Amino acid sequence: MSKKTVFAILATIGAPGMAFAATAVPLGEVDKQPLNITAIAMFFIFVMATLGITWWAARHTKTKDDFYAAGGGIKPWQNGTAIAGDFMSAATFLGITGAIYGFGFDALILAVGVMAAWPVILFLIAERLRNLGSYTFIDVVSYRLEKKPIRIISAIGSLSVVIFYLIAQMVGAGKLIQLLFGLDYVYAVILVSFLMICYVSFGGMLATTWVQLIKAILLLIGGTFIAFMVMKSFNFSFEAVLGSATKVHPKGNAILAPGLWMTSPVAIISIGLTMMFGIMGLPHILMRFFTVKDAKDARKSVFVATTLMGYFYILIIIIGFGAMTFVMGNPDYHDAVGKILGGGNMVALHLTHFMGGNLMLGFMSAVAFATILAVVAGLTLAGAATIAHDLYAKTFKTTPTTSVEEIRVSRIATFALGGISVVLGIAFEHQNVAFVASLALAIAASVNFPILIMSMYWRGMTTSGAVAGGVVGLVLSIGLIILGPGVWVSVIGNAEPVYPHIYPTFYSMPLAFAAIWLFSVLDKSARAKNEIARFDEQYVRSETGIGISGASKH
Q: CB under 8 Å to 532, separation ≥6 — which residues?
């Protein structure tokens, strides 16, 4: 099971590939293999380089502005590359490639769903988010609403996303290290947690950004090489790539038309909603808009991120269809892949080995680990900011909090999240973690996004509406996933799911919006009237970054 297992693991550890990865079986033991010296050497080079960056970043991290937002000094190209790095993940490279390998055209919804989010972020979210907030999106949603209840429900949503996402990442990273080094799984998870704590506790946002940026560049280099070699094999004719793919695929020309994978309109729409709007509610992504100096740089960051991701998804399409020829059409690789539906997640690395040999395979294996580590660091920092800034300093602390005190609480929170991730990573070792990451995106789309977008654009939203919408979105997203195939069948062992789809977003997100509207219009209290009246003040701040009093954002 060894290599097949680790490829499947990597394909389950991220958002865009979740729909496909959910067809995989639960993860079992990983057989220890002969050491991959190339991958290990590159792994150590990356770790040493990033620890050096962390040491450098720690010398520049003195205040909470530095810790949470790198002092607002990240350049747009750096921030945009780091944002893109969050989505140019191992799961994207392996999961979407595997989905294209198995289902062709239908799998493109995974890439399209992610890309569709960014124009909305560019035109509707980035500028207002940067002008209204300080360190987290919870600053934005609580701007004119009653601070304590809205911060608590938003923090619950954010921490739920962070923890469920961390579980998936830690299991994948632990299994990968177990395979590369022959370590026991427990020690592998502890190693990953230790590195994560180092990056976040000492380097803060500055170190996290540079780790993500370097990883993104490495993945772009590897993906470009593989796609170039595929196109070179067909004299740079994509039409020839598609023609060759249809000849070897069992479904023939059907892979170039919709309907091979998903036939239920509810499932298709739900996947699209989850991919598109879940991204807009991910706390570690929204946090990045506070690392640049102003709204103009926030928009530039989105432009850079969109450009890099668009290019990367073009590479993914070429690699996915190219794999049909070089993997599906090659018995040596195809026998290792196994059945198309069950083993397609590994085809990108088989194609990597075919095109670049052991050296390129080692490189991409190391990049896969770098990807996981970068995402884990970003998630942990977002979770620490939620605990220290949103809950401790702004909700439960009755006296003003100093910068030193808040950073200390953030570091304690980082250690706590590291410990939690180790415990949960060990607990979920033998489970298929696809549903966990699905739950993270569903919560983001059903809780964080509705509250955020309504707080910025609807004058009539009140605290009662926001809290009601958050509760409805949280309960429905978790409940429907438990009743769906990811848990009800795969984990609990029932024959048929109560809710037939992997993602609950088709129902949970619209009902969250409906609850926000209903409870807001029914709220006739004096508090609600004051919150509605403050919308004009918020609008000025969102457009200019300057409050009514003339105070700057920070």
A: 459, 460, 462
**CB contact at 8 A, 200 and 381:** yes
Q: Please give the DSSP secondary-structure letter assigned to residue 397.
A: -
Check residue 8 and give its pLDDT.
45
| Cα separations in angstroms, 264 against 327, 389, 483 | 29, 43, 18
Who contacts 86 (Cβ-Cβ below 8 Å, separation ≥6)? 212, 282, 284, 285, 374, 375, 378
Q: How many angstroms separate the Cα of 410 from the Cα of each of 158, 213, 228, 383, 389?
A: 15, 23, 44, 9, 8
Query: What are residue 15's phi and psi, to 5 degrees?
Result: -65, -55
Answer for the pair 101, 347: CB distance below 8 angstroms, yes or no: yes
Domain ranges in the chain are 2-544
The secondary structure element, H or E, covering residue 271 is helix 265-279
Q: Two tokens at 88?
A: 């140019």
Side-chain half-sphere of 171: how many Cα atoms within 13 Å?
32
Per CATH, which fold does 2-544 belong to? Sodium/glucose cotransporter (1.20.1730)
* More confident site: 194 or 43: 194
Q: Which of these, 211, 210, 206, lies nearest to 67 by C-alpha position? A: 206
pLDDT band at residue 329 using 50, 70 and 90 as cut-offs:
low
Buried b / exposed e across 261-287, counting CB within 10 Å, b at 16+? bbeeeebbbbbbbbbbbbbbbbbbbbb
Q: What is the pTM of this model?
A: 0.85
Length of the chain: 554
Asked if residue 462 lies in contact with residue 145, where contact means CB atoms within 8 angstroms, the answer is yes
